[in-house]
Amino acid sequence: MANHQLDARKYFEVGEGSTGEYAPAPLEEEIPRAAGKGLDGIARAPEMDRHEHIMAIRNGDLGSLHSWELVTAMDGPGTRMTVFFAGCPLRCLYCHNPDTLHAREGTVATPEAILDRMGRYKAVFKVTNGGVTFSGGEPLMQPAFLAKLLRGAKEMGIHTAIDTSGFLGRNLSDEMMADTDLVLLDIKSGLPDYYERTTGRALQPTIDFGHRLSDAGKEIWARFVLVPGLTDDVDNIEAAAEIMKEFSTLTRVEVLPFHQMARDKWESLGMEYQLRDVQPPAKEHTDLVREIFRSHGLTTF
């Protein structure tokens, strides 16, 4: 049964969040280039003045990142280098990376530095049928930067995936789509009101983006996070399955059980965590939800 006191929309009542591209506020001094934030092994971006910095962001010559990691059996097929962008227009109540919500709090990097690190794993990607996944945060908040990474990866023959909510799907140009092999599309709820309470944003842009991907022949993996009291009403699950069925290029659905591993992150950031008392779903409950998706003809894990 849904708990209607849980509501992500309250985060935007105080003006938090963004609905478009990352655009830094003008800075009075040169931009500091601190190491940190999980970008070990990535070359530091050069120092520049305010105008140079703004133009570099606009042209995709700089991006705001949180971290990167090498993972297997996650974020797409094979062994993958997952690059986490900083900044997200949603405020999902169960977000497990709340430290990626604000682009200005990320670490600045150049596309060349990321591509250089990516190229070092080409042999691993080839052997494991892996590649690179751009996640976050929301990578489509920084489309110019993402475009350069996608193009560079394809020039190296590396499989590319984007992990996105789809809310900013309009930011993915046709050229960027041509350089994208797989989209991990988060269908966070199937009913519009449930979706808005879960994320603070509207569902329709994600649906529209899924149709656009299907029309372009792009493979989609859908993800649904099962949160007791938030996303687990049967009507909401059935509606999510109905949406997914409309995407002709969808090949896989992942039902991810909610966990509490991010609770300390929220609290350390001084953010209200509305799900602090929510228990993870039982295995039997998760298995039952997977069966609902399978009953709609969807290959589900």
Automatic annotation (TrEMBL):
Domain Radical SAM core: 74-295
Family: Belongs to the organic radical-activating enzymes family.
Cofactor(s) in the UniProt record: [4Fe-4S] cluster
Species: Trueperella bernardiae
Listed PANTHER family: PYRUVATE FORMATE-LYASE 1-ACTIVATING ENZYME (PTHR30352:SF5), PYRUVATE FORMATE-LYASE-ACTIVATING ENZYME (PTHR30352)
Gene3D superfamilies: Aldolase class I
Family matches, as InterPro entries: Aldolase_TIM, Organic_radical-activating, PFL1_activating, Radical_activat_CS, rSAM, rSAM_sf
UniProt-listed CDD domains: Radical_SAM
Function as written in the Swiss-Prot or TrEMBL entry: Activation of pyruvate formate-lyase under anaerobic conditions by generation of an organic free radical, using S-adenosylmethionine and reduced flavodoxin as cosubstrates to produce 5'-deoxy-adenosine.
Keywords from the named record: 4Fe-4S, Iron, Iron-sulfur, Lyase, Metal-binding, Oxidoreductase, Pyruvate, S-adenosyl-L-methionine
Identification of the protein by name: Pyruvate formate-lyase-activating enzyme
GO molecular function terms noted in the UniProt entry: 4 iron, 4 sulfur cluster binding; [formate-C-acetyltransferase]-activating enzyme activity; lyase activity; metal ion binding
Annotated gene: pflA
Annotated signal sequence range: none
Domain of life: Bacteria
Pfam family, one: Radical_SAM
Tagged with keyword Repeat: no
